[in-house]
Amino acid sequence: MKRRAFIAASALPLLGCERTPPDGNTLHGAFTGIVHTRGHRLRDPQTQPPSSTHRTRVLVLGGGVAGLAAARALRQQGVDDLALLELEDEAGGNSRGGQVGGIACPLGAHYLPVPGDNAREVQDLLEELGLRQRVAGRWAYDERTLCHSPQERLFFQDEWQEGLLPLQGVGEATLAQYRRFAETVQQASTAAKYTIPISKVPPALVQASLDAMTFEAWLDQHDLTDTHLRWYLGYCCRDDYGAGIARVSAWAGLHYFASRHGFHAPGTEPHTDPVAHDGGVLTWPDGNGWLTRRLATPLGDRLRTGRTVTRIASHRHGVEVDAVVEATGQTERWRAERAIVALPLFVAARVLAEPSDAVRRAAAQAQYAPWLVANIHLRAPLHDRPGAPPSWDNVLYGSQGLGYVDAMHQSLRPVPGATVLTWYRALGDMPDGRRALLEQPWTHWRDEALRELRTAHPDLGAKASRMDITRYGHAMAIPVPGTRTSAALQALRDRPADAWQRLWLAHSDLAGYSVFEEAFTLGHRAGLATARAGL
Q1: Cα–Cα distance, 519 to 336 (Å, whole number)
Q2: What is the C-alpha to C-alpha distance for residues 314 and 337, in angstroms, rounded to an integer?
Q3: Taking the CB of residue 269, how many other CB atoms lie within 10 A of it?
Q4: Are 368 and 346 in contact (CB under 8 A)?
Q5: Rounded to an integer, what is the distance from CA 135 to the centroid of its chain?
Q6: Nearest partner of 523 among 117, 11, 5, judged by Cα
Q7: 393 phi-psi bin (left φ>0, alpha ψ -120 to 50, beta other)
Q8: What's the longest Cα–Cα distance across the chain?
Q9: Cβ neighbours of residue 34 under 8 Å, at least 6 residues apart?
Q10: Contact 125, 521 (CB under 8 A)
């Protein structure tokens, strides 16, 4: 995903009503969506005797994409005696949606690429939801959910251009570097297989060498130094991994392109892969929240939100879990035959009574990117600069943010009106980014968003009526060098269960990076294995 797959720390709801001096417009806003004090409870756990005890056959711990996928797989196998415990007040993790001013918008991940054949579990989900079907012997996707054109544009050299690769007015030297990078991506695809999900294919030897260095070092090694190319590659890495070319591995940088749509340099024919998908994306006004709500709804009262898991213990005869009920502050104890731990590795390492060496090592190796998502309600359409027309994804060249998506882009209304722009910023490259995210006031991040977007939209402040900001302290695992070939992660992927097969791990962290397909596949696998172990 771009901005696809984000448990963890964020912020208490803090209401604000502040003036934006450049426009004199009163702009209301709040920190919404995540309550950071719940996750921070694990920093200094305080034990208290449980006030109630519950029993169920299977517990799912964590209601992100992996946990919801695990619960679905259990139900498909006939396991209805289950409970899912989720930290926040709504399931979905960083694939949740919300509303601002009555308009649906994403609170995190905002689209799903049309999955390739390696992600058959995701394909089956889309078929179940009616989003894909056989037409004349070929798979067709619901046109209402495929992203409408125009899809992407870039504000570059004071006007908008189609696509996100800087092209307008660049010289021949830049275009030559684009062509050279396209060739290296094609060579990488030929030398080794890049797939999503990665758990189905072990890394090749050449990929191990790529995983040993940063993407920046690899670009240096290949004399790919063009400023425009490096900006674009940095944007892609921050968009998918939360950090730029100086932090992610060369394997991750190439995987971004080689696992999906490749890299098409202007003036050249794109390389085609007969088994690759067509590069389309599925999106909804509320982003991937549309998907997670449909995964959560069938659970009914089996979904228990506002539960902070503080202890997980397994033994030969079952599993025991303690969780704080946030609404009352009391601890409840759950006993089950088996449990699926769909929690980030750094959380699992804290709450497991006896974490394995692989869990400890993998948690110690993991690095996470903080993220910020700002939803800006507009009373009226913005004036536009010359060039390409308003698009679904709108990015500003050279900016620290990742641009914005328009929540009403999929609408068929004949005349533009009020909408919500969702602006993203990854802080994986920012020193002490997590601390800044937590400690800076709402007004700071409001001004950051307005300052950046006014470059292309000077009238933004005057037309914005509200800005709600969601903060993710540990949004996604960053695939730094050593992640793809991590022996600890490989051990957890190969054997995600404990010695008694009472606990199964399932989270995108096991893949080393965060996208919907990885999380869903790992969760689905854990659900199937848990159900079959109990037969």
Answers
A1: 23
A2: 9
A3: 7
A4: yes
A5: 31
A6: 5
A7: beta
A8: 71
A9: 8, 9, 10, 11, 88, 470, 471, 472
A10: no
d(CA 322, CA 242): 32
- Residues of the chain with pLDDT > 70, as a percent, come to 93
Alpha carbon distance 352, 196 (integer Å): 29
**Which two structure tokens, joined as six digits, stand for 170?**
């660049």
CA atoms within 13 A on the CB side of 163: 9
Q: Which residue has the tokens 């409840």?
A: 332
Q: Yes or no: say if 52 and 330 are a contact pair by the CB < 8 Å rule.
A: yes
Token output for 395: 């990015």
Please give the structure tokens belonging to residue 140.
């067709």
Structure token pair of residue 338: 């088996």
Q: Please report, as a single letter, which amino acid is at residue 65.
A: V
Give pTM, 2 decimals: 0.92
The packing angle between helices 516-533 and 65-76, to 10°, is: 40
Cβ atoms < 10 Å from Cβ of 412: 7
Identity at 53, one-letter amino acid code: T
Cα R_g (the chain), whole angstroms: 23
Q: How many residues in total does the chain contain?
A: 535
Q: DSSP alpha helices (H): ranges in 410-500?
A: 433-439, 442-453, 460-463, 487-494
411-470 per-position pLDDT tens digit: 988 788 999 999 999 999 999 999 999 999 999 999 999 999 999 999 999 999 999 999
For the chain, list residues with pLDDT below 50.
1-22, 24, 271-277
